[in-house]
Amino acid sequence: MANKRKKNAHSVYNYYECYAKVLLEEIYPNIYYNLEIKDKPDLQNTQSSLGVEVTTCIEQNLLEAQQNWLIALRSSDKNKTEKAIERMNQLGYTFTGGLQCWSLNKNYTYEDLFGDPEFDRIYKMTNEKFMKLNNTGYQLLDKIDLFIHSEIYIPQNKYNDILTHLKEINVDKRYFQYIFITTSDNQLFLFDMIENRCIVKSYDEQQFAYSKQAAQMMNFEHS
């Protein structure tokens, strides 16, 4: 199968797939290597019969702001860059260059950061992908994992609750052994369905380099 080429309005999703590839190969190189961007699932190493489905669980305005950030960061067209930065401002985000700050100018409440709706979206997304997995929505690889890009913050007292909910969803003939979730403080959570454990890896110091690597990897069209 040829590598897929997502262009223009859909280029942000290609970025997330590239970013997931970078994170997995850098943080877990003994498990994930030579991953190719394909489809169903999004990342594959067919020689080792391994795949990773990549999805986003990010609020729509932030998703649009990140798409415009990519345009502003990479476009050589001054007008396109200015329009992208202006749109980011309209959405409540100030363009800060390659090392982008994604915090809105607002006072966050406890519910904004830790409220159940934030986690409910994660569970809903996991269930949708799990149903697809068990309805032959993906290639028949030996192992398929799930990677969820999010901007939530996960406090330590939530680790076991999240693991329990994910295990309750993820029960059938086919299942995701590993479910990865990224967070707003640049941590990669691995929820292991077999070993019943949660592993947390910080990539805060490497975030800029990883993001730049993913942006360079994507097939970005300036049309």
Oligomer: single chain
**Structural category:** alpha/beta
CATH structural architecture:
3-Layer(aba) Sandwich
Question: What is the CATH top level name?
Answer: Alpha Beta
- The ordered H/E elements are HEEEHHHHEHEEEH
**What distance separates the N and C termini?**
26 Å
Question: Could you explain the architecture of this structure?
Answer:
The chain is α/β, with parallel strands linked by helices. It has a single domain (8-58, 108-217), classed as 3-Layer(aba) Sandwich (Hypothetical protein pa4535), CATH 3.40.1540. The protein contains 7 helices and 7 strands. It has a 7-stranded mixed beta sheet, sandwiched between helices.
Notable traits:
alpha/beta, 17% strand, 223 residues
Summarize the structure.
The chain contains 7 helices and 7 strands; from the N terminus they run H-E-E-E-H-H-H-H-E-H-E-E-E-H. It is α/β, with parallel strands linked by helices and 223 residues long.
Architecture blueprint of SSEs:
Layout: H1 11-27, E1 36-37, E2 43-45, E3 50-57, H2 60-74, H3 78-90, H4 110-114, H5 116-133, E4 143-150, H6 159-169, E5 178-182, E6 187-192, E7 197-202, H7 207-217
Parallel strand pairs: 3-4, 4-5
Antiparallel strand pairs: 1-2, 2-3, 5-6, 6-7
Helix pairs in contact: 1-7, 2-3, 5-6
